[in-house]
Design brief:
This protein has 198 residues and is mainly alpha-helical. The protein contains ten helices and two strands.
Length: 198
């Protein structure tokens, strides 16, 4: 089985008639944190997530946001979908979200796992287990993945040199950077299309 974590802002749900009080969707949003996706919903979610990943902008375009919301609400409205509540995971879940938000907001910072644990006020165990459960990565690997993603965004949108952009995000060794970049994006940084080349 595969686990995908979706954060649905309340603002997106408040005015949506499919999530109003008394509906199955509303009940499930309040009472469960695990939801089975049927095959069709899995395929649609994967398609929208791919659109989001390949979107060049920092903020997802409205059609992608609406598509993700529609798939999510459809999944919550599916009466045959299994649901569950896994309370013991809450600390790990919170730790994973905290480290994700921290790394996204400060992609150029290189922080040890111990320092992250202390800064975010979460146990080291919750930090590691949360990152593993949500992202299949260690905290260090998650930081590197986010930094690589930001480097690729800069390369896609700008015309700065690869070495300068990589160094800006903490990659000092070119060979190490190129290897990690290829592992994550299945291409070398010099083959990433640049806006100036289109």
């Amino acid at each position: 089985s595969q686990l995908t974590t979706l954060l649905l802002p309340k603002a997106l749900l408040q005015d949506n008639p499919r999530a109003t009080q008394g509906t199955l969707v509303s009940q499930r949003l309040q009472q469960c944190n695990l939801l089975e996706l049927k095959a069709q919903q899995q395929a649609e979610l994967a398609a929208w997530l791919n659109e989001l990943i390949n979107s060049p902008t920092g903020q997802p375009p409205e059609p992608i946001t609406e598509g993700l919301l529609d798939v999510s609400l459809t999944a919550f409205a599916e009466p045959t979908a299994q649901t569950g509540l896994n309370q013991p995971r809450q600390e790990r879940h919170n730790a994973a979200l905290k480290v994700l938000h921290r790394c996204m907001a400060n992609p150029k910072d290189l922080v040890s796992s111990d320092a992250l644990s202390e800064e975010l006020a979460v146990s080291r165990s919750a930090l590691f287990k949360g990152c593993q459960e949500h992202f299949a990565l260690t905290p260090t690997q998650l930081q590197r993945s986010i930094r690589l993603d930001r480097v690729r965004t800069e390369l896609l949108q700008g015309d700065g040199s690869i070495g300068a952009v990589a160094a800006e995000f903490g990659f000092q060794s070119r060979s190490h950077f190129a290897r990690r970049y290829r592992e994550q994006f299945a291409e070398l940084p010099q083959t990433t299309p640049r806006v100036s080349q289109l």
